[in-house]
């Protein structure tokens, strides 16, 4: 059980548990005046619940999940939340999802691990559900961005996470699907570490090309970096400030 300030997430039937990455992404998303939001690969429902907490009372938040156990658990978490009337779950594959509305905002913490570099016992013993939750084979960037672009209204926003090592590739794939880079947040464990992850914000329409935006953002990398822990191993003030609306102890 993971407890936030305004909701609780049961996760015993989910392959992927609530983690720092999702909490950072959900905290960083600017919901604005979005009236319709889609969470792709919701898992326990953590991102959809975070969006419900941040969104207008009139907003509708839909979530889609391919795994049976996770979809069941997200349904229960939604029913137990104070925003239950705003939340809906769809059990299925985003690639076969036919939404009845165009969304103002799409958010996703997608699977981004490639194939295992070596055949370890730990990897071989992973459950099918955990493999689906972690591996890009279950939802590669092309499929995610194509489906997200199709689901978004013109001018809509898409937020997601991918390793910083593939930042340029991810941005280009998104652009090929009509989603143009607007902001990047580089995430690192400590000031001595290089960023391991990027949070991306894409817009469905933009007058700035992907290459121009990448050059601009690369020049501003130092101004768009979130450090999770300080030298003493404690959470940094910037991390606390970002996640304060959700973490119980912040």
Unreliable stretches (pLDDT < 50, length at least 5) are 113-137
Distance between the first and last residues' Cα = 18 Å
* Named CATH topology: Rossmann fold
Average pLDDT over all residues: 87
Please specify the SSE layout and strand pairing:
Blueprint: E1 2-3, E2 8-9, H1 20-28, E3 36-40, H2 46-54, E4 60-65, H3 68-79, E5 87-91, E6 103-108, H4 121-124, H5 128-134, H6 141-151, E7 152-163, H7 167-176, E8 180-190, E9 197-203, H8 210-219, E10 225-229, H9 237-243
Structural features, described:
The chain has one domain: Rossmann fold, CATH 3.40.50. Strands 5-4-3-6-7-9-8-10 form an 8-stranded mixed beta sheet, with helices on both faces. It starts with a strand and ends in a 7-residue tail after the last helix. Helix 1 runs parallel beside helix 2. About 10% of the residues have low confidence. It has 250 residues and is α/β, with parallel strands linked by helices. The protein contains 9 helices and 10 strands.
List keywords for this structure.
250 residues, alpha/beta, Rossmann fold, eight-stranded mixed beta sheet, two-stranded antiparallel sheet, globular
Short description:
This protein has 250 residues and is α/β, with parallel strands linked by helices. Helix content is 32%, strand content 24%.
């Amino acid at each position: 059980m993971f407890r936030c300030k305004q909701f609780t997430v049961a996760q015993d039937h989910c392959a992927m548990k609530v983690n720092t990455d999702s909490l950072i992404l959900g905290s960083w998303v600017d919901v604005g005046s979005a009236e319709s939001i889609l969470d792709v690969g919701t898992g326990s429902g953590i991102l959809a619940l975070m969006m419900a907490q941040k969104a207008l009372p009139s907003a509708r938040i839909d979530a889609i999940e391919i795994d049976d156990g996770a979809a069941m658990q997200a349904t229960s978490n939604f029913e137990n939340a104070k925003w239950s009337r705003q939340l809906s779950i769809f059990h299925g594959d985003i690639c076969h999802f036919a939404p009845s509305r165009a969304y103002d905002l799409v958010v996703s913490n997608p699977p981004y691990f490639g194939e295992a570099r070596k055949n370890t016992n730990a990897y071989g013993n992973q459950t099918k559900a955990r493999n689906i939750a972690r591996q890009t084979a279950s939802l590669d960037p092309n499929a995610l961005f194509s489906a997200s672009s199709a689901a978004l209204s013109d001018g809509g926003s898409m937020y997601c996470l991918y390793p910083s090592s593939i930042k340029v590739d991810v941005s280009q794939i998104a652009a090929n699907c009509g989603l143009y880079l607007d902001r990047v947040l580089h995430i690192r464990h400590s000031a001595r570490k290089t960023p391991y992850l990027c949070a991306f914000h894409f817009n469905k329409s933009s007058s700035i090309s992907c290459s121009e935006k990448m050059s601009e953002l690369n020049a501003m990398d130092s101004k768009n970096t979130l450090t999770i822990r300080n030298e003493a191993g404690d959470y940094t003030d910037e991390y606390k400030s970002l996640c304060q609306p959700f973490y119980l102890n912040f």
